[in-house]
Amino acid sequence: MSRYRGPRLRISRRLGDLPGLTRKKTNKNSPAGEHGQQIRKPSEYSLRLEEKQKLRFNYGLNERQLLKNIKIAKKVQGSTGIILLQILEMRLDNIIFRLGLAPTIPAARQLVNHGHILVNDKILSICSYQCKPGDIIKIKNKLNSTKLVQTYMNFPGLASMPNHLEFNKEKLIAKVNGIIERDWVALQLNELLVVEYYSRK
């Protein structure tokens, strides 16, 4: 499994606010690097590439995973861009993040990998698991699991919880009630440009 280990603020300065990657904020407005200060008109290709990179870094995917999800989205009837966002939003690591159980998606991924999360009463360590309506998500009933999640919940990532999720803070039990709608996706993104980027390859 690939993971981005480089400077995160540098990426968010270049691509804009990425809530899934980091919660840190910077006072600098221009992109990082010596050429960040130069103002130039971006080409059509660079606009498409930028939108694709936003998806990759926010959800923590590598190129192969994103391409695989694009192919799945193209086979489903409907708008490919919206279906792609729904596939990415219904990943287990993203749902943990959206519930406020982790401050970022990498932190949520670590919770899943270390076996702290139960889905339908089974320990699941696959971050890319596609959650379905009706799935019950719990925290493992162990002291270190609940303590870690309680620490994370004191510093939540996003303020608003999407309407397709239901969460009981006392019992630490969540339920997926449906598929996320486009309006609830927290990322500022033009998904059509991502589809265009891959259609020209």
UniProtKB/TrEMBL annotation:
Gene Ontology CC: one annotated term: chloroplast
Small ribosomal subunit protein uS4 N-terminal domain: residues covered: 3-89
Any one GO MF annotation of this record: structural constituent of ribosome
Subcellular localization(s) per the UniProt record: Plastid, Chloroplast
Region (Disordered): 15-40
Keywords assigned by UniProt, alphabetized: Chloroplast, Plastid, Ribonucleoprotein, Ribosomal protein, RNA-binding, rRNA-binding
Pfam families, per database record: Ribosomal_S4 (PF00163), S4 (PF01479)
RNA-binding S4 domain sequence ranges: 90-151
UniProt key word Chaperone: no
Domain of life: Eukaryota
Signal peptide start and end residues: none
Record GO biological process: ribosomal small subunit biogenesis; translation
Major localisation: plastid
Record PANTHER family: 30S 40S RIBOSOMAL PROTEIN, SMALL RIBOSOMAL SUBUNIT PROTEIN US4M
HAMAP family with a match to the protein in the record: Ribosomal_uS4_B
Binding partners and assembly: Part of the 30S ribosomal subunit. Contacts protein S5. The interaction surface between S4 and S5 is involved in control of translational fidelity.
Family (UniProt): Belongs to the universal ribosomal protein uS4 family.
Function comment: One of the primary rRNA binding proteins, it binds directly to 16S rRNA where it nucleates assembly of the body of the 30S subunit.
Protein name (database record): Small ribosomal subunit protein uS4c
Organism (species): Acrosorium ciliolatum
